[in-house]
């Protein structure tokens, strides 16, 4: 018989947690974002043809990221991580660095990170911070000149999904706690991932999502993440035995 995975707190977040910091996504705007078409700047098959516009777009996102700040929901999540250490795993669909700015380490960014670049020559992933990428820039390791924003594009591989599914295995322990914050659950199918496990489950979204069956959750908060997060923090300490 397989042994039960150890209990963990898995905090899974999406755009909803960063919205209050002023970070927008394509989903806010019908697939158009400041006049960029999602297909031009987020497509694995065409990004090289659109090299200049792709970098222009992500350069702007990076500059905007430098101007926003983590909000209260990020702060409380960071406190929870600090308190429970390795017993808490933060997974996010967001490409911002709000958790890192609060000192969180080992955050699983399933869709990549805006502050990093990926070399198409040697696979090196390196930090660019909030700086603009120039089309003449090359890989600091191998000097290759084809560099991609470290973002999971449509049609591209998402290597960190493996880490996410490994983390989700801990939810098979009924003493584990799954916390879902700010995601419709349609890109990564939260509902399917949770419905077969018996752990404690907490949901926080602005409103009900057609992709998430709220009846499987012990606690449901339909409100802003910043107003739900203190309640979530105390639910966690109540559930964590
Ligand atoms: Zn390289």
What strand order characterises the main sheet? 5-4-1-9-10-11
Strand content is 15-25%
Report the radius of gyration as a whole number of Å. 18 Å
Distinct bound molecules: zinc ion
Main β sheet profile: 6 strands, parallel
CATH domain fold name of the largest domain = Rossmann fold
C-alpha termini separation: 25 Å
Domain count: 2
Gross morphology is: globular
Helix/strand/pairing category: alpha/beta
How many strands appear in the DSSP assignment?
A: 11
Count of DSSP-assigned helices: 8
What would your notes on this structure say?
Strands 5-4-1-9-10-11 form a six-stranded parallel β-sheet, with helices on both faces. Strands 7-6-8 form a three-stranded antiparallel β-sheet. A two-stranded antiparallel ribbon has the order 2-3. The chain has helices at 15-19, 38-41, 51-65, 72-84, 98-101, 161-168, 190-194, 225-239; strands at 9-13, 32-33, 36-37, 88-92, 108-109, 112-119, 125-127, 147-151, 177-181, 200-205, 219-222. The relative contact order is 0.18. It folds into two domains: 1-23 and 71-111 and 158-241, Rossmann fold (3-Layer(aba) Sandwich); 24-67 and 114-151, SIR2/SIRT2 'Small Domain', CATH 3.30.1600.10. It is of the alpha/beta class and 241 residues long.
């Amino acid at each position: 018989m397989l042994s039960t995975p150890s209990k963990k707190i898995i905090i899974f977040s999406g755009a909803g947690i960063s919205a209050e910091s002023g970070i927008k996504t394509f989903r806010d705007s019908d697939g158009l974002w400041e006049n960029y078409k999602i297909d031009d700047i987020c497509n694995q098959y065409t990004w090289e043809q659109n090299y200049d516009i792709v970098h222009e777009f992500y350069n702007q996102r990076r500059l905007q990221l430098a101007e926003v700040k983590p909000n209260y929901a990020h702060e409380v999540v960071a406190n929870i991580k600090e308190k429970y250490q390795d017993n808490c795993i933060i997974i996010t669909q967001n490409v911002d660095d709000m958790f890192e700015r609060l000192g969180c380490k080992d955050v699983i960014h399933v869709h990549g990170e805006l502050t990093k670049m990926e070399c198409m020559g040697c696979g090196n992933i390196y930090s660019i911070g909030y700086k603009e990428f120039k089309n003449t820039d090359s890989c600091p390791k191998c000097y290759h000149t084809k560099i991609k924003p470290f973002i999971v594009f449509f049609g591209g591989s998402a290597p960190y999904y493996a880490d996410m599914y490994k983390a989700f295995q801990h939810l098979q322990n009924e003493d584990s706690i799954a916390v879902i914050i700010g995601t419709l659950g349609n890109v990564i199918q939260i509902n399917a991932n949770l419905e077969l496990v018996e752990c404690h489950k907490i949901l926080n979204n602005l409103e009900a999502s057609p992709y998430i069956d709220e009846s499987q959750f012990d606690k449901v908060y339909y409100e802003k993440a910043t107003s739900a997060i203190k309640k979530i923090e105390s639910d966690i300490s109540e559930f964590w035995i």
